[in-house]
Here is the input.
Amino acid sequence: MTAAKRAFITGVTGQDGSYLAEFLLQQGYHVIGMVRRTSTVNFERIKHFQDQITLASADLLDEVSLISVLREYRPDEVYNLAAQSFVQTSWGQPVFTGDVTALGVTRLLDAIRVVDPDMRFYQASSSEMFGKVREVPQSENTPFYPRSPYGVAKVYGHWITVNYRESYHLHASSGILFNHESERRGLEFVTRKITHAVARIKLGLDHELRLGNLDARRDWGYAPDYVRAMWLMLQQDEPGDYVVATGETHSVREFAQFAFEHVGLDYRDYVVQDERFMRPAEVDLLVGDRQRAQEVLGWQPTVSFADLVRIMVDADIRSLQPSKTYVSA
Ligand code: NAP
Ligand code: G4F
Here is the structure.
């Protein structure tokens, strides 16, 4: 019998890390999830399978800790999902964002180079790198024009991955993932902010939802689909970069409209525009061209925009009203 493959995930406590860990467990992997020290435990997203994975303590800010955990666990595959991932925060904390989201990638790549350059590497690149878009739709060949300290940090992380691939022949790949959401999405991101507010309003717990730019457009997919693409990239003979997207774009306004409609309400009665949630520089339109991922990886999304909104609203209603059965409009 061959030994189970070992996968090391940074950011395992986050949305994507939790779905990727579950996916890899289903594939028979031994999963090692990297966690950083916190004063209270934040294992909400992984607690239902925590006993099936190994937790390893380290931090993207500390290279020695990364070398130590890689030496100890000797993974076959390393998935770098950890980041300061909230765009709005990156203006308030630009240096910290650069340290974790940009230089953190170099620390991890360098740890791989030192410990075992045969480890395969996945970098969580982002459609935020396209920013003020140079073409529509955006593909692997579209030039980057980031519009936030977060986007700039991700461009650095992307190119240092390419550089280590070319300099040291690492099997290092980047997934340029467009926005992907789920019932595990952080409450500060606009989709979950909307679905959580819709649930609270429907249940009589709130009366309004304050949002920023309603006209921004995103290519929104379902997170469990997207972690499958990460794994597929590391199963290829050759490393590479792939856009992962649905190919559809919708505005924040449409997301709110669909979410309120799902519970029989009109978003115009509840949504209030609030300057506090506007950004110093906005990414107006994202829509991805996933042709390469579809042809080479055989990847395509399985959840439509309308179903994504429904899944998230229903989950928020269930979580706020766990003892009752709710029938949506
Ligand atoms: P998320 O929910 O915000 O999770 C981020 C993870 O990073 C958390 O587990 C967090 O740990 C960890 N982390 C932050 N700083 C760290 C540090 N210094 N050392 C170690 N761990 C640290 O993000 P996500 O939505 O799952 O996204 C996963 C990755 O994909 C991120 O790199 C993000 O930038 C990128 N991405 C996301 C999307 C999307 O639409 N979701 C699209 C493109 C790219 P704590 O729990 O301790 O805070
Ligand atoms: O949900 P958001 O905060 O996501 P954003 O900025 O697109 O970033 C997410 O996707 C990226 C991939 O493209 C990831 F790399 C990144 O880590 C993160 O996961 O905002 C989406 C849009 C923006 O245009 C924002 O201005 O929604 C607009 N928006 C309008 N009102 C709002 C709000 N965003 C938030 N968070 N809160 C609002 O009240």
Remarks:
- Residues 85, 87-88, 126-128, 178-179, 188-191, 193, 211-213, 216, 218, 252, 277, 279, 282-283, 286 surround G4F (ligand 2) (CB under 6 Å).
- The CA atoms of residues 13 and 41 lie 10 Å apart.
